[in-house]
């Protein structure tokens, strides 16, 4: 590593430690920010010599990254940005802090995938899904798929592990069709993890025709784009690998969506030569991730935190949550997106019959939505008030990004 | 009303539903049912024929590609034109507002609109993203518009339409006027579930569709609190 990069890396680690000691944050962003100021190529220098996997998509990337890091850990030490700091500053911090490791599994914000591909030259990139998220500032879904595709065309040597169930991802993962219209180039490994959300992929990104669905299958009515045959699939509470062997997945994380994330993690690890039979037991070591799924007891209430940032992830959260009193908290600060329109893309009716409490900066937007949805609720001004309003026992908390961080801070930054 | 029940058509949810547009159908249906009016909501996908005899048509927002495709299909289908000729109500939001006009721009190309509203849309230099507020045309008798906008278009109104509102915050059509209306056709840049923050506008559409001039009042505690909170937020941002 050049001297400048060494200095930058060292200062980066120190700043991260200071940030944590001062209680200002996880230190997972500030360290990288300072390091990159000293050496703009620091991320590339830190990445050099490591076999790297990148994990990107709208939803599930933090959890899948943690699961993949656990699976790749069969082979040796793995650096990872497990705090969910998923932009280049976070990657820089994570690699600097980890020191020399043979492997790294990095979660990447979908907007930064092209840049991080360039800087880290990964061995494999996992593409999970693309759906509407913070649309007031995020790229529209089709534009994001186009950006991914353009980035991957420049890196055709990279292995891709991609979601066969998401037409936008399939299109992004396959370079422009050649003369014989083959759309399944050999370097892509397809997985199927089940997908509840379909509302962002009714129109073919290739030709603009309607996409038809029937059961698991989907196909474009106007061009050859269709669901590729997945090599990795979820079956019951386990994963079928490309050889047809089934592996039971025992997780400490709730919901079917996390069995799908486990399938993806095993597929990523397999690209490094890890056999699923050797990795699958390690997945149960993953508990909560930066507070997500964390369970905390307070005043006799067993509080569980679920992060839901966009319509697709709300649907998954309702599936994970127990039938128990539920607090919903919504903010619309910069990291959340300023627009709350997406609340009407979520059907809250699964919450009928549960005691529902609402809070957060934008509780009134949620109130109007629940009222229209005929879900009775109670508005509370604070997290403490919510805890007092429910009987002892389970309290599920479902919140979007900054609302989640606010509640996590109330619970002493629980991990 | 055309039949026993109020028929609401959500036009092309497969194409024109980017920002919670479903909300407008849900809100209209609920406010009608709360008045004891039977309601039927039809979601008509772009590969299906649009019925020409519904009472209210909702045309929502969408990305450029789906917007252009939606306009082509609506022109080819022709049912929306027949419905308008028979006095149906049309509520267009964002991309759905633009495509009711003479022309609009999508992916850098000028596209033909439905020519139901005398408006033309082109591209602004900047994208309009943020709170949108305005004083609504007094003839419509509804309180100020409260919404959120997110669009790159600028819309110019011809002589046969009236602006929906005079902008007090945000951009709307051009920074001065927002939306347009003529007869029982109404369009706005207040995107997505625009009626969530504007229950009086929802009731205006219901009055147009049913011909009932005095709809029983509803408990609007939550929409009213939301409107006050947004009004305060807009005022605070300006101060």
What does this 3D model show about the protein?
Chain A has 415 residues and is α/β, with parallel strands linked by helices. Chain A folds into two domains: 3-285, Mur-like, catalytic domain (UDP-N-acetylmuramoyl-L-alanine:D-glutamate ligase); 295-410, Alpha-Beta Complex (Protein-Tyrosine Phosphatase, Chain A). Chain A is 34% helix and 18% strand. Chain A is built from 14 helices and 17 strands. In chain A, the strands form three sheets. Chain A has a nine-stranded mixed β-sheet with strand order 2-3-1-4-5-6-9-10-11, sandwiched between helices. In chain A, strands 12-13-17-14-15-16 form a six-stranded mixed β-sheet, with helices on both faces. A two-stranded antiparallel ribbon of chain A has the order 7-8. In chain A, strand 5, helix 8 (167-173) and strand 6 (188-192) form a beta-alpha-beta unit. The model of chain A has no long low-confidence stretch (mean pLDDT 87). By secondary structure, chain B is an alpha/beta fold. Chain B has a single domain, classed as Class I glutamine amidotransferase (GATase) domain (Rossmann fold), CATH 3.40.50. In chain B, 28% of the residues lie in helices and 33% in strands. Chain B has helices at residues 22-34, 64-77, 79-85, 95-98, 199-210, 221-238, and strands at residues 6-11, 39-44, 56-59, 89-93, 103-106, 109-112, 119-136, 145-157, 162-169, 177-182, 185-188. In chain B, the strands form two sheets. A nine-stranded mixed β-sheet of chain B has the order 2-1-3-4-11-10-9-7-8, with helices on both faces. In chain B, strands 5-6 form a two-stranded antiparallel ribbon. The radius of gyration of chain B is 17 Å and the shape is globular. The chains are: A alpha/beta (415), B alpha/beta (239). The interface between A and B is medium-sized, with 31 and 33 residues.
């Amino acid at each position: 590593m050049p001297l400048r990069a060494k200095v930058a890396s060292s200062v980066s680690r120190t700043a991260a430690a200071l940030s944590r000691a001062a209680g200002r944050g996880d230190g997972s962003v500030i360290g990288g920010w300072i390091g990159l100021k000293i050496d703009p190529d620091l991320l590339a220098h830190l990445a050099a010599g490591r076999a790297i996997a990148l994990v990107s998509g709208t939803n599930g990337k933090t959890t899948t990254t943690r699961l993949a890091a656990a699976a790749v850990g069969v082979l040796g030490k793995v650096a990872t940005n497990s705090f969910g700091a998923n932009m280049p500053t976070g990657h820089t911090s994570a690699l600097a802090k980890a020191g020399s490791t043979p492997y790294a599994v990095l979660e990447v914000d979908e907007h930064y995938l092209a840049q991080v591909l360039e800087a880290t030259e990964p061995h494999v990139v996992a593409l999970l899904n693309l759906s509407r998220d913070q649309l007031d500032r995020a790229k529209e879904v089709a534009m994001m798929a186009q950006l991914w595709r353009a980035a991957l065309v420049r890196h055709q040597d990279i292995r891709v592990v991609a979601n066969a169930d998401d037409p936008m991802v399939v299109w992004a993962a396959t370079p422009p069709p050649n003369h014989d219209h083959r759309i399944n180039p050999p370097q892509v490994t397809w997985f199927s993890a089940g997908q509840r959300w379909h509302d962002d992929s009714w129109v073919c990104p290739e030709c603009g025709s309607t996409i038809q669905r029937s059961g698991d299958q989907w196909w474009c009515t106007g061009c050859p784009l269709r669901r590729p045959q997945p090599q990795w699939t979820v079956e019951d509470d386990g994963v079928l690998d490309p050889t047809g062997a089934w592996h039971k997945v025992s997780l400490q994380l709730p919901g079917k969506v996390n069995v799908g994330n486990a399938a993806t993690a095993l597929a990523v690890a397999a690209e490094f030569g890890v056999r699923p039979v050797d990795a699958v037991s390690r997945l149960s070591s993953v508990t909560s991730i930066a507070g997500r799924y964390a369970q905390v007891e307070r005043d006799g209430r067993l509080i569980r935190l679920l992060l839901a940032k966009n319509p697709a992830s709300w649907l998954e959260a309702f599936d994970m949550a127990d039938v128990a009193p539920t607090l919903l908290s919504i903010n619309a600060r910069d990291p959340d997106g300023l627009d709350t329109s997406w609340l009407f893309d979520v059907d809250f009716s699964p919450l009928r019959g549960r005691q529902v409490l609402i809070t957060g900066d934008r509780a009134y937007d949620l109130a109007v939505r629940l009222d229209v949805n005929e879900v009775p609720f109670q508005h509370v001004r604070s997290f403490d008030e919510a805890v007092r309003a429910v009987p002892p026992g389970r309290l599920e908390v479902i919140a979007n990004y900054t609302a989640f961080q606010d509640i996590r801070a109330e619970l002493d930054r629980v991990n | 009303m055309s039949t026993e029940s109020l028929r609401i058509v959500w036009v092309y949810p497969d194409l024109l539903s980017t920002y919670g547009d479903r909300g407008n159908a849900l809100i209209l249906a609920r406010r009608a049912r709360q008045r004891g009016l039977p309601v039927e909501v039809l979601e008509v996908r772009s590969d299906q024929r649009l019925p020409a005899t519904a009472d209210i048509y909702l045309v929502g927002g969408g990305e450029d590609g789906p917007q252009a495709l939606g306009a082509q299909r609506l022109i080819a289908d022709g049912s929306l034109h027949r419905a308008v000729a028979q006095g149906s109500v049309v509520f267009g939001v964002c991309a759905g507002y633009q495509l009711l006009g003479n022309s609009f721009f999508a992916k850098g190309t000028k596209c033909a609109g439905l020519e139901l509203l005398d408006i033309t849309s082109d591209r602004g230099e900047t994208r309009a993203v943020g709170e949108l507020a305005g004083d609504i045309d007094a003839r419509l008798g509804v309180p100020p518009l409260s919404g959120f906008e997110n669009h790159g278009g600028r819309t110019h109104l011809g002589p046969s339409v009236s602006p929906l509102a005079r902008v007090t915050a945000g951009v709307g059509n051009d920074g001065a006027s927002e939306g347009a209306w003529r007869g029982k056709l109404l369009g706005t840049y207040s995107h997505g579930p625009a009626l969530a923050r504007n229950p009086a506008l929802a009731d205006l559409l219901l009055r147009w569709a049913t011909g009932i001039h005095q709809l029983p009042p509803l408990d609007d505690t939550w929409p009213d609190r939301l409107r006050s909170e947004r009004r305060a937020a807009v005022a605070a941002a300006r101060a």
